[in-house]
Amino acid sequence: MASKPSLAAANDFLSFVNASPTPFHAVKSAKERLEKAGFTQIKERDSWASTLQPGGKYYLTRNGSSIVAFAIGKKWKAGNPIGMIGAHTDSPCLRIKPHSKRESDGYLQVAVETYGGGLWHTWFDRDLSIAGRVMVKAKDGKIEQRLVKVERPILRIPTLAIHLTTTANFEFNKETQLFPIAGLAAAELNRRGKTEETKEEEKKDGPFEPLASATQRHHAYVVEIIAEEAGVEPNDILDFEILLYDTQKSVVGGLNSELIFSARLDNLMMTYCSIEGLVKSLTSSSALDEDSTIRLISCFDHEEIGSTSAQGAESNLLPAVIRRLSVLPASESNSDKSYDTLDADTITAYEQTLSTSFLISADMAHSVHPNYPAKHESHHRPEMNKGTVIKVNASARYMTNSPGLVLVQEAARRAKKASSSVSSAKEGVPLQLFVVRNDSHCGSTIGPALAAALGARTLDLGNPQLSMHSIRETCGAHDVENAVNLFESFFEHFEELEQKIVVD
Fold first, then answer.
1. Which residue in 39, 67, 307, 471 has the most C-beta neighbors within 10 A?
2. Is residue 86 packed enough to be buried (19+ CB in 10 Å), middle (13-18) or exposed (0-12)?
3. Alpha helix segments (H runs only) across 138-247
4. Rounded to an integer, what distance in angstroms lies between the CA atom of residue 107 and that of residue 138?
5. Considering Cα of 85, then 88, then 89, then 91, what sign does the dihedral take?
6. DSSP conformation class of 496
7. What pLDDT score was predicted for residue 429?
8. In degrees, to the nearest 5, what angle opens at C-alpha 87 toward C-alphas 72 and 90?
9. CA distance 43 to 427
C-alpha cells in the first residue's frame, strides 16, 4: 500500500491562517514564529549601529501590518548581495466604516466599506465576525494598540429570496445592499433596558469631544464586544480599524486530503511560506558561518489596493532597510572598520548591494479551472500540487526574465524533495510556468513596483489556487511544502547562484 504524502506543512499553515484574520494578526503570527526561531525585534526609530551583528537574526514592523525579517551572514561585508522574498499580508475584505451605526425595518445593521477587489457576492450568507486593531487608553496614560478577534459569528449579509426577485443573475448595490445585519433592534433595547429617549439623553452627557465617541458612531453592543476582547472599558476605546472575516475555519479537504479550503490564501500562503523558508534555512547552527549575504523577507500591507501607502510595497520600507543594511560592516574578525566609518566603498555600498541582490515576489497564481478551461492559455495551465508557478508577462506586469528564471530553477533543482512529490529524483521541487492569454486581463503584484524602486533583479511566482479573492478559496495541500522547500533552497544557495548567473 502506497504511503500517504505528509500534510505537516499544510496543517501548520492552517494554524497560521486561522490565527490571522487581519494583516495585524498576520504580523503577530509572523513575529511569534520568528521569535521562536531566535529572531530579535529591532525598531526603525532606533540606531542599529550597536545592535546588528554578522550572524544575527532580526525583524522589524511598520504600522503593525508590515514586517521585515533578515539574517546576516557571518562573512557579510558592506555592499554585498541580499537574497529577498517579498509577499503581502492583506486580502480583500469588508471593513467597518468610521460611523457604522445603522438601523432599518427593525434590524440593527453595520455599515461597511469594501477593501480591494473582492468577489463580494461570496460574502453573502456567511457567518461573519470582526477582528482588527483597537487604540485604547492604558492605565499609565499612554495610548496603545491592542488586537481583537471575536470568535463567535455576530454578523451576516442575507441574500434576497429568489421568490422576491425577477433578476436571473445575482446583482446588488455595494453601498446599499452589502449591509450586514447584527441583530434585531427590539432585542438590543430589551437587553439594555433603555428607550430611544434615554439613549438620546446619554449622548448629551460628558465632556466636549472633537468627534463623536465610539459608542455614538457604532452600535453600543458592538463597541462593548470589542472592548471586552481588548480587555478595556468601552469608554477607553479611542478608535479602531475593524475588519469582517468568515468564522468558518480553514481546513484540509478533498477525497484524498489533497486540497485546502480557506480564506485569505491570497496572500497569507506566500507570507507563511516565506517565513518558514527563511526559518528553515537557518535550522543548522552553522547556517550563517560561511555566508557573505543577508537572507531577508518583507511582507507588506495594502497590496490589494495598489501598495501606495507608508507600509505598502511602494513605500520606502524595503529601500530604507536595505540602505541601512548595505553599509553594515564586516565582523571584527574580518574588518576593523566601525559601522559609522565612511570610505569610498561604503558611500556606494547601497548601489552595489542593489545591483547584486535578487528579489522573489511571491503572490498566489491562478490554477487552471476545470469549468472554465478556455480562460487559460493552452500551454500554460498550472495545476494544483504540481509545484509553484513562475509568472511571465511580456508587458512587465510580472518581473520574471530568463536570468531570474534560471536562478530560481537552480534553487528548485537543489531543494529538498517534498514528501508529496511524485518525482523519483532524490531532491528537487517542481515548478510550473504561467502566461496570461493575450485576450485576458493580467493582474499584477508587488514585483514591478519594487523592481522599479530598487533596480534589483526580480522574479514573480506563487502557488496555484482557485477562486482568488473569494471569501473561500482553494489550493493544493502539498504545494505548501513545495514552496517552503523552494524558498529554503533559495536562501541556502543564493550566494553561490548569484555569482554564477551574471548579466550586467
1. 67
2. buried
3. 185-192, 196-203, 214-217, 220-230
4. 34
5. negative
6. H
7. 97
8. 130
9. 39
Q: Where are the strands (E) in 89-142, listed by range? A: 93-104, 107-115, 128-137
The residues spanned by each domain of the chain are 8-91+263-409+443-479, 93-246
Q: How far apart are the C-alpha atoms of 342 and 352, rounded to whole Å?
A: 15
- 8-state DSSP, 74: T
- E strand or H helix at 487: helix 479-500
Number of Cβ within 10 Å of residue 11's Cβ equals 15
What residues does 396 pair with on adjacent strands? none
The answer to whether 278 and 85 have CB atoms below 8 angstroms apart is yes
For residue 171, which amino acid is it?
E
Residue 271 host element (H or E): helix 265-281
CATH of 93-246, one of 2.60.40.1400, 2.30.250.10, 3.10.50.30, 1.10.10.10: 2.30.250.10
Q: Do domains 8-91+263-409+443-479 and 93-246 have the same CATH topology?
A: no
Contacts of residue 127, Cβ cutoff 8 Å, sequence gap at least 6: 153, 156, 246, 247, 248
Beta bridge mates, 360: 85, 459
Which residues lie closer than 8 Å to 285 by C-beta, 6 or more apart?
none
CATH class, 8-91+263-409+443-479 region: alpha beta
Q: Is 216 helix (H, G, I), strand (E, B) or coil?
A: helix
Grid cell 552553522 — which residue?
286
Q: How would you classify the pairing of strands 464-466 and 431-435? A: unpaired
User: Would strands 294-300 and 259-262 be described as parallel, antiparallel, or unpaired?
Assistant: unpaired
The secondary element (H helix, E strand) that includes residue 15 is: helix 8-18
**162 in helix, strand or coil?**
helix
Kindly give the residue spans of alpha helices, DSSP state H, lying in 172-259: 185-192, 196-203, 214-217, 220-230
Q: What is the mean pLDDT of each run of 10 residues along the chain (504 residues)?
A: 75 98 98 98 96 97 98 97 98 98 96 98 98 93 95 97 82 94 91 60 66 92 97 95 98 98 98 98 97 98 97 98 94 57 75 97 98 95 98 96 97 85 67 96 94 97 98 98 98 96 85
> Rg of the Cα trace of the chain?
25
Q: Which residues are CB-neighbours of 33 under 8 A, at least 6 positions away?
A: 16, 275, 276, 279
All 3 cell numbers of residue 421?
Answer: 512529490
For the record, the C-alpha cell of 400 comes out as: 520574471
Ramachandran area for residue 239 (φ above 0: left; ψ -120 to 50: alpha; else beta): beta
Q: Which three cell numbers stand for residue 294?
A: 543577508
Give the 3-state secondary structure of residue 225.
Answer: helix
Identity of residue 407: L
